[in-house]
Design brief:
This protein is mainly α and 405 residues long. Helix content is 72%, strand content 3%. It folds into two domains: 312 residues, Up-down Bundle (Rhopdopsin 7-helix transmembrane proteins); 69 residues, no CATH class. The chain contains twelve helices and two strands. This is Substance-P receptor.
């Protein structure tokens, strides 16, 4: 996060820090504590379950889902390591955690936010390539892991200056954590850094994502492929629409949650007097809560909009008395190897049926041949990044049809 969120409600490093004017009643602190604790609980548990659903089930290990794992890791880490520390510092304006954590507090959130938004960007680009340019080579699992490593390298590089200049300072009766930028009367370094962080971790990726999903949306919703109206084709288009719709909601949620935060830290360079008012602490706590809450919404979105994630969450929380995971839902979460076995059995059954029908009525041979060719075309047009998805796609449609709504 830019602009030293650990500076809390002060948001300035001038002499006015000497007086701790941001003291609020206990009941207000209690209410804010409950609100921030809710973020930590929902975010950490929800994102860990998302990671388990993807990593523990081979069927879920796709290019898109690998980026979702990275997104979940970044958000869970930020919620666990930074949210409550930010809250206590914003409430008390006293730094309790030492110099090392002061630097970590200013370093890691910037990297986590960068990693989150560029994971979403990578997903948008992958969807764009799969739907707009389906004949182009897709990312392999190894290439996806390399992209994730590059994202984290760039994220750590971007966050390094703020962590490097972070320090603690002794004031009368308290210690504060701040970013001590090199001396400059015009605050050139600070303003330049905040502007770069806003552009690189918010504006630029959202522009790329917006363009990618606009083109994908036009292709999936506003156009039809002539001559292909088979049920299998319609199922594929519907599935792709659901994935794109889910990711658009994820991105919009992120953009809405972080917009006030970026505005808050950019405005301090133009309206510094506003940040000395007593009410600014409540404003900052609300803005910080909204930004941090972005880490807890994604698991809820996945659970509501994606059948397989919903199944995974049901299995993760099946110990709850009001949650039931049926037998068919268990089949859907089996590994790809299990599904391939089922697919082979199903295909053998279809072949036997086809052979018997041809033997009974030789005149239908040409029709059966055309159907077989059409089936191969439908399977080839899946657009999935995993080869095993193409192999088991037909059996999956059978299993998904047996799932309760």
């Amino acid at each position: 996060m830019e602009g030293t969120p650990s500076n809390g409600s002060n948001a300035s490093t001038n002499a006015s820090l000497d007086e701790n004017q941001f003291v609020q009643p206990g009941w207000q602190v209690a209410l804010w504590a409950v609100a921030y604790a809710l973020i930590v609980l929902v975010s950490v548990v929800g994102n860990l379950v998302v990671m388990w659903i993807i990593l523990a089930h081979k069927r879920m290990r796709t290019v898109t889902n690998y980026f979702l794992v990275n997104l979940a890791f970044a958000e869970a880490s930020m919620a666990a390591f930074n949210t409550l520390v930010n809250f206590t510092y914003a409430v008390h304006s006293v730094w309790y955690y030492g110099l090392f954590y002061c630097r970590f507090q200013n370093f890691f959130p910037v990297a986590a936010v960068f990693s989150s938004i560029y994971s979403m960007t990578a997903i948008a680009v992958d969807r764009y390539m799969a739907i707009i340019r389906p004949l182009q080579p897709r990312l392999s699992a190894s290439a996806t892991k390399v992209v994730i490593c590059v994202i984290w390298f760039l994220a750590l590089l971007l966050s390094f200056p703020q962590g490097y200049y972070a320090t603690t300072a002794e004031l009368p009766g308290r210690v504060v954590c701040l970013v001590d930028w090199p001396e400059n009367t015009t605050q050139t370094y600070q303003i330049t850094y905040h502007f770069c962080v806003t552009v690189l971790s918010y504006v630029l990726p959202l522009l790329v994502i917006g363009y990618a999903y606009t083109m994908v949306g036009i292709t999936l919703w506003a156009s039809e492929i002539p001559g292909d109206t088979s049920d299998r084709y319609q199922e594929q288009v519907s599935a792709k629409r659901k994935v794109v719709k889910m990711m658009i909601i994820v991105v919009c949620t992120f953009a809405i949650c972080w917009l006030p935060f970026h505005i808050y830290f950019l405005l301090q360079h133009f309206k510094a007097e506003w940040y000395q008012e007593k009410y600014i602490q409540q404003v900052y706590l609300a803005i910080l809560w909204l930004a941090m809450s972005s880490t807890m919404y994604n698991p809820i979105i996945y659970c509501c909009l994606n059948d397989r994630f919903r199944i995974g969450f049901k299995h993760a929380f099946r110990w709850c008395p009001f949650i039931r995971a049926s037998k068919y839902e268990g089949l859907e979460m089996k590994s790809a190897r299990y599904l391939q076995t089922q697919s082979s059995m199903y295909k053998v059954s279809r072949m036997e049926t086809t052979v018997s029908s041809i033997a009974g009525n030789p005149e239908e041979e040409l029709d059966a041949s055309s159907k077989t060719k059409r089936l191969s075309v439908d399977l080839a047009s899946n657009g999935s990044s995993r080869s095993d998805s193409k192999t088991v796609s037909e059996s999956l449609s059978y299993y998904s049809n047996t799932l309760p709504p």
